[in-house]
Structure formats: C-alpha cells, structure tokens
C-alpha cells in the first residue's frame, strides 16, 4: 500500500504512479491554493491582471530565490523549462560556423530547439559522447573540454538528464567555459526540489528549471535564471506590454517597474499566472512535511529498487551512485519492444512508468516520490521480471 503521504496527493488510486519525473504531481493543499488564485482572478480579472499582477508576481520570486541561491532580480517566471531555454537559444547572436557544444544525453525537445537555431543561423551542434558508465567527474569534464574549440560559442548541458536520469557534474565544465568566454546554458528541468542549487556560485550564464516536477508546484510554473551581466541580450519570445525600448544595462528600469529582463519575459499578454503564484505554497508544503527527510527515504528506495533489478537482469547500471539522480533511476533492461512492455505494465499491473530505448539500450525509468511505497517497488520488480522472463534470485525462488 502507498505510504500515508499519498493522502496528500490527487493521484488516482487505480494507478501505481512511478513516473513523477515526467510531469510531477501536485499535493492537494498546493493545488487548492492554485485554484484559489484562479477563482480570485475570475472574480475581478481587471484588478488581478491589470492593477495587481506586477506586485503579485514578485512574491514567488522573493520566496523562491533564496532556495535557488540567487536574488529575486535574477529569475523570471516562465511556463516551463523548454520555454525558458528557447528564450535563451533564440536570443543568442550566433553566426555561420559557430558551435554549440552539448552531449548525447539531452532532452529531445531541446535537441529540436537547437536544430531550429542552427537552421536559422548557420551555426552547428557538436555532440560529445559522455563516457559510460558515468563513474568519474574528471572523465566527464575532460570529454567536454576536448570538444571545446575556438569556434565554441555555447555550452549546453542538462543538470539532470531526462533519458538517463544522471546528475551531470557540471561545475568544472562551466568554469572552463567561462574562462574561454563560452556562454553556458543549463537545462535544469529536473533539478529544483531534487538536488540543491546555488546558481550564483555555479557561475552559469543561463539556467531554466521546472517547479511542477520535483518541487511539486502546479503545471505551468518554471523559472529562467540569467546572470546579471547576461540579462541584457535576452529577447522575449512574445513582445507585449513588458517590452521596453530603453537601456537593458544592469540596474535599468523595465516598463512595469522591474528590470527589463523580468518585465519582458513575465508580461507577454493575457495568461493565467496562478501556477507561478502557488510556488510559495509548494515551498511551504515541503517545509511542513520535512521533505528533505522524505527525499532521503525516496532516494534509498529508488537505489534499492534499481539494485534489485540489476541483480535479476545482470546488466550494469548507467552510473555509480553519486551520478544517479537521487529519486529517479534509468534502469537497463534486456532488449525488448519498449512500447509493448510499457503497455503491458499499464494494462496488466496498472503501473505508470516510462520504458524506452536510448542509443539501442532498453531502459525503464523509475521515479520515487513521497507518495510511493516499498510494496509498489516490489510490484514493479516482479512485473518486469515476469514480462521480461527474468530469473528471480535463488533465495526468493526457494521461499
């Protein structure tokens, strides 16, 4: 049975939900706060969106910025990390022959974003193969350094990878890029609420992360961080009331009273800002339930589950433990039709989990959140064993 924390979530009891990493799950009290903002908006839309919104949008920035290791002036609300990273990618003044250095573990939507930028600018993407299994920070960093040339203009990395669920040790690579005047852009979609962040100390130029995943805020809440010296080159994807024709130097005033960076990105026409406004409620929920302790338990359960499946498959993990995302593990499984396995898990066991191939290797990516339980992990390991015809350990087979 799920742990008693499951009662705080809205997830269907008919599904064993082991896929928090894809879209997250919002706790009931946070979702109720979100809906309260929506009702308040509908009760007086002109006051909410016309007279009060600038001040309202500031409150989540002030609550969230210390959690990110920066100041409220360095983050702007966006609807998801893909949007934030598109703002950056489409703002960069790239020329034919310029290089965007990245890895073979990136999220497909962002691979398409850079392909679009390449088609428009004549730049090119250079993809580094990360040494696998990932067991050494030095090997990871050296592979990236070897890919840097005098033509490298951008270093684009995931902090936590989506397909392989690895935590990339990005600190030294970012520092090396900074010394070479290479712009650093980090996809932090899975990072907030999952791993500690100190963005100012990291020294990154641009970083975008989702709040709707591991932070457990409602869908439609995310942020874009920009180092103060790099804010001025950004352009909004939509030009609206927040746009200004004035100076974008640090300290300049935007059209709505914030910096141009914040005003231009946050004010892009009528939309529902309630998800972003509920971010402080998500932070409060985490604090009330000591979510750091919950996360430690989830991490232990995720790693234990991966180890049990490894024992049955005999397949080596993708990384040593320190490079595995704490609550999310991509577990190698024998060659199979991943869609058939995924569908069978849903239809026969009511288990929601992604199963796919990455570079020819079949993977099942399990997420463990506070609403999950050891019994659910037992069910997953046994279900995969049945579907993949895996032998159980002798001690279990004889019991």
UniProtKB/TrEMBL annotation:
Keywords, ordered alphabetically: Aminotransferase, Pyridoxal phosphate, Transferase
Gene Ontology molecular-function annotations: transaminase activity
Keyword flag Transferase: yes
Pfam families per record: Aminotran_5 (PF00266)
Domain Aminotransferase class V residue range list: 26-372
Family matches, as InterPro entries: Aminotrans_V_dom, PyrdxlP-dep_Trfase, PyrdxlP-dep_Trfase_major, PyrdxlP-dep_Trfase_small
SUPFAM superfamilies found in the cross-reference section: PLP-dependent transferases
Stored PANTHER family: HERCYNYLCYSTEINE SULFOXIDE LYASE, L-CYSTEINE DESULFHYDRASE
Protein name: Aminotransferase class V-fold PLP-dependent enzyme
Native source organism of the sequence: Paradevosia shaoguanensis
